[in-house]
Amino acid sequence: MKEGKTRYVILGLLAEGPMSGYTIKKLVEARFRFFWSESYGQLYPELKALVAEGMIEALPKTGETEADRAVAAASGRGRARGRDRTVHALLPAGREALREWLARPPEREPARFEILLKMYFSGQGDRAWMDPHLRAFEAHYAGELAVLRRFEAELRRIGDPDGSHADILRVIDFGQRTYEAYLAWCRTALAEREGRTSR
Amino acid sequence: MKEGKTRYVILGLLAEGPMSGYTIKKLVEARFRFFWSESYGQLYPELKALVAEGMIEALPKTGETEADRAVAAASGRGRARGRDRTVHALLPAGREALREWLARPPEREPARFEILLKMYFSGQGDRAWMDPHLRAFEAHYAGELAVLRRFEAELRRIGDPDGSHADILRVIDFGQRTYEAYLAWCRTALAEREGRTSR
DNA sequence: GGCGGCATGTAAGTTGTTACATGATTAA
DNA sequence: TTAATCATGTAACAACTTACATGCCGCC
User: Fold this and answer.
1) Which nucleotide is closest to B22, CA to C1'?
2) What is the pLDDT of residues A57-84, one digit of tens each?
3) Cα(B177)–Cα(A113) distance, rounded to whole angstroms?
4) Considering only CA atoms, which of B7, B27, B5, B25 is closest in space to residue B16?
5) A106 and which of A74, A116, B38, B114 could share a cystine (Cβ 3.0–4.6 Å)?
6) Cβ-Cβ contacts under 8 Å, B42 against chain A
7) Does any CB of chain B come closer than 8 Å to the CB of residue A139?
8) pTM (2 decimals)?
9) Which residue pairs, CB below 8 angstroms and at least 24 apart, start in B160-164?
10) Which residue is nearest to nucleotide C11 (CA to C1')?
């Protein structure tokens, strides 16, 4: 009964303009990295299916698109055009499917934190083993938080031509708040282990 | 190359005492619900595999265990013993595997928030569609936070006979902090939307 | 010539869910 | 007697990852 969401990622991104599967992947990595991911093994078969369903159309061998310029701006490099590619464009049926999905309530997010499992069971081993795990966790999310802050600053710098920034900033805000919560938790845990007590 | 973590959930719980697959499921639901889940379709085949690997042993048709009393205490009901069951107990090899896993760094948690995807793309539909989604999100996590607070109060009430509560409280603290962050985000988003109604 | 980035795709494998089948016991 | 809870298990399916295969282009 689970529904594949890959198609809506594709449809949503194509709503901004035509782009290739490769570009979709790059954009998901750049913009959604903190709350989503897609692999080529999901992306390409889904693009094919969407074409077959009349949701999108394939426009072979097209030049640089708006989306390519967005990726290039983010990576600081132009598109060194390699192999010929297939650019996909949204069709009315696809736009309609996207809108239907937007109106439907989102599914519950299945959170799985292996670090919490280890924390819970840590008494079964040497509790000191948790320390490097916590420090790695802290370092990772401190880095991710810095990325989000740069992303936010960049968005605010370039202004809001089409009025879509409020939603994007709201999404970034989610990431910042949760990462800040992770970091505060992590630091409290580490501090407690060193002997001090808080919370 | 992905490693199933179901086995460590089993091993970790069996480290507290022998129990049945059914009891493991109940305990995962009761204690880990906010950061983990297991289905019978994963649990039973994994139990079988662990027996075959000599990690655990099956003790058929055993009476009430320590773990059953824990489940009964949480649900306020005794075990109305139904069909005969198989209680599993941890063997030295299983304890060793658990300890090895505890020492290894946890894998990155793959976060997937469909609501953020919808928020990001919300400009492609009617932005007002997000409001019920946000309210459902808020209601859900407010409820979950209340559960965690009760869980914490209960743990503090019963004292700490075997010294394992610090780790469990730390795990609960993670849930509380992240849920508080979710709620603060959600309420800010909702408030902002009310500020620019009919726009 | 090789490397790295661009670009598309597939095959195989793993993981995890859902639905179902079975059957015992107890309480309403 | 019927529902609920206890209890175990499997088959079919869906979702997703990984590794690989292919090949173009520009640069050093």
Assistant:
1) D7
2) 999 777 788 888 888 887 777 666 667 8
3) 14
4) B27
5) B114
6) none
7) no
8) 0.93
9) B163/A123, B164/A123
10) A41
User: Which amino acid type is present at position A28?
Assistant: V
Q: Point out which residues pair with A20 in neighbouring strands.
A: A87
Looking at beta carbons, which residues of chain B come within 8 Å of A164?
A: 123
Nearest residue (CA) to C1' of D24? A83
Neighbours of A121 (CB within 10 A): 23
Strand segments, DSSP code E, in A56-171 are 56-60, 86-90
| pLDDT in single tens digits along all 199 residues of chain B | 456 899 999 999 999 999 999 999 999 999 999 999 999 999 999 999 999 999 999 997 777 888 888 888 777 666 666 677 899 999 999 999 999 999 999 998 888 999 999 999 999 999 999 999 999 999 999 999 999 999 999 999 988 877 889 999 999 999 999 999 999 999 999 998 887 654 3
Q: Does A193 touch chain B (CB under 8 A)?
A: no
Strand partners, B89: B57
From edge to edge, which strands make up the β-sheet containing A19-20? A19-20, A86-90, A56-60
Distance CA B3, CA B148 (A): 29
Residues of A in contact with B140 (CB under 8 A): 108
Rg (CA), chain B: 21
Alpha helices in A15-91 (DSSP H): 21-31, 40-52, 66-75
Backbone phi, psi, residue A58, to 5°: -100, 125
Among residues B58, B53, B55, B70, which one has the least CA distance to residue B21? B58
Q: Which of A119, A137, A173 sits opposite B171 (nearest CB)?
A: A119
> Helix (H) and strand (E) counts for chain B?
8, 3
Q: How far apart are CA A5 and CA B132, in angstroms?
A: 20
